[in-house]
């Protein structure tokens, strides 16, 4: 029952404002793709266009190769779950779930019997005869999901369906979607602004910003191999180091780091995910950065702690790394404002701002487990796991 | 995202919503039909007001003239217009605050008492105005209540359901927490009243006042039965003109004199608001930009 | 909660402002809206009195006065004599009037509810043209029924505008003054359909587009959306506005008087004619008619509310 979905250079403008710029997206059968973007990025508009609730200014929506331009919403065989459950207040739970079957002309009794199966799928069979007004938020969304699934959609569209639920409830809903994928294997497009949700639910993530898809790749790719600096930021990457790429190495305040093969030479931003950095127990190496050229050892970076932010079970450690003053003692106090990086001088490359040590540092953020006993100003060594440095040309 | 959808639907869209599909021509034609339904009864009114000679089989007037409008300058008509204005104004000035008080009381009183207040204030809707007047008339006469005061009293009772209802629905959607916010920001109760509650209820107040004014301005039956001919308002003139045949021009001109002032007021109140909502651009508002910036910052 | 709020205000800025008194101001006002007992009830009663007393008094005086007059206990001139003549003597005519009024009210209500629903549907489904129609509908609300009746008279009378433009055949039923009250019903339908439409639009504009989108993605065609979504969603507002229209048209005077035939008479026309009659003996009959129409209005409202409650219970 699952189908291949294709959006071909979809554009959409509201008056003079262009919300989508020739967006293309392919979703293979039974795959789940997340459209990730901030509010206003155009992700919901794209979903509404796919559903047929809105018409594109240009481009085509194809399902299994068939152009849907002339197919109205109700005959597209898709189902859409909205952020609000939008249960019909004049129908009880079971009749809401049976709605699609009733519209298709099924008798009430049969429609209800079928609907019951879907209510069982979302663990709400006991609520069949309840009025929808008596449901909690999570139950409402589960009914909405059952109602959408009961239509046997070729493609299931989810528009931030769990945004209004609390964290625990959201995780049970993720499990539910997992069950549904295992049992029914529908093609799914889920719109979300939550990168964690996108990562949990989807096989691939399409990152939308300002009406353009910046990158469409696996969960791993968009996190560790972001196509642009914006993608990195949208996926929560906290470390962007400006510099230059040449000969497969990125040159910056951090020194020279090997980057991915195929990186273009020229001014580039180095992306190092905070999760890819670890603290190295003090051994007293002298160089502020040792590239891993000698025997596959991960590169290390030396800096001093400038701040800690607790995330609960994990801690973000901010480390000030400075080219002229690698030990960083002069910037030890956390009350000091973090030094700004002068982008122009960095792009120019070469010896960086000799007279001004303040301007030649960079703050790296490291995501570490637990709550490390670190003091502000303490000199520590960072290690880059799996050489996961990724350079993209400066935007 | 929905914030990006402008008030009017964008041009290339096939509107879904209720989405009665069909050829745009048919949709527009049906719309024109509805416009017709609403406007057609007013067409002969307008034509008659400017008609000079309009003989029976002729579709349009044979000659046009503004002579009929001269009646508006006659002292009797002016006095009647003034009476109507005074009647509408007095009814509105009394019924609006009373409606607010009634709505507040219905909200403040617990359960059954609140419902009782609601019920009593809506009760006049169930009473045909002529029945109300007939029963009360003899008592008003015996108490020597002046005709104007008697008409005002009865019309205030007739208008109260409308004003109460306006405030009731405004208070139902009124966000009490705005007042709490103001208090936590250091506003004293009097300032809260003036700077929070009054502005938030101003739209309902305008609507309530307008409706109560209309009750007085357009009343015929109460003025007829209580005033007993002592109180002459525009509808009274109109009623006597319409009751006999051959006064088409007069009826038309007086009708327009009754219709146009409230419609102008309505337009003056409603149009700026409509224009404001239409002018609201779907593009990034400053607030929207801020939200984007903040969500970026938060790493979303 | 209260004390820190008051305390944090910069009273020092004004040495003359007595801080304790303003603290007292705060308490009743804050709790009033919250529905805490005690002071609130008192405040509620104080607020209720100026609005409730005039209404209760006028209606009470009016009903008692009408009853007393209908029984001859409160004659305009002369001694009070208890008599049920006004009720018994004209029961047949009175009954006929009630039937006529009920016929007008039912026909007008059905017509305005149907036309009003269609207008609301069009406004909600068609943004641009709909906006114009909603505006025009709103503009007809301030027009008094007296003027509406005058205008409909100019439109529908024997030599009216409609006759002139369409050249109606002589066999066409008489609308103004006709025994079927065609023009009266047309006038009510014209005015009240705008009212019904505005009530429906107001009650549905927020929910309807989301619900219809959801229904469309579930496979409901446009027609199914109207029948299975819009109509059920609009039912409460439809029922309330129908009830209001029914009660209003049952007891309304102007249109029935200007556009109706001299006989049969609806209750309002009959009551006003008897009330204004030079024969003072007609007064009690006028009062009986007024009371009957009041009673019919109340019965209609109670029946309507009971029906609404039952249909809610059935769901």
UniProtKB/TrEMBL annotation, chain B:
<feature type="transmembrane region" description="Helical">
    <location>
        <begin position="68"/>
        <end position="98"/>
    </location>
</feature>
<keyword id="KW-0997">Cell inner membrane</keyword>
<feature type="transmembrane region" description="Helical">
    <location>
        <begin position="119"/>
        <end position="141"/>
    </location>
</feature>
<keyword id="KW-0812">Transmembrane</keyword>
<keyword id="KW-0472">Membrane</keyword>
<feature type="domain" description="ABC transmembrane type-1">
    <location>
        <begin position="81"/>
        <end position="269"/>
    </location>
</feature>
<dbReference type="GO" id="GO:0055085">
    <property type="term" value="P:transmembrane transport"/>
</dbReference>
<keyword id="KW-1003">Cell membrane</keyword>
<feature type="transmembrane region" description="Helical">
    <location>
        <begin position="147"/>
        <end position="167"/>
    </location>
</feature>
<dbReference type="InterPro" id="IPR000515">
    <property type="entry name" value="MetI-like"/>
</dbReference>
<dbReference type="Pfam" id="PF00528">
    <property type="entry name" value="BPD_transp_1"/>
</dbReference>
<protein>
    <recommendedName>
        <fullName>ABC transmembrane type-1 domain-containing protein</fullName>
    </recommendedName>
</protein>
<dbReference type="GO" id="GO:0005886">
    <property type="term" value="C:plasma membrane"/>
</dbReference>
<keyword id="KW-1133">Transmembrane helix</keyword>
<comment type="similarity">
    <text>Belongs to the binding-protein-dependent transport system permease family.</text>
</comment>
<feature type="transmembrane region" description="Helical">
    <location>
        <begin position="250"/>
        <end position="271"/>
    </location>
</feature>
<dbReference type="InterPro" id="IPR035906">
    <property type="entry name" value="MetI-like_sf"/>
</dbReference>
<feature type="transmembrane region" description="Helical">
    <location>
        <begin position="30"/>
        <end position="56"/>
    </location>
</feature>
<keyword id="KW-0813">Transport</keyword>
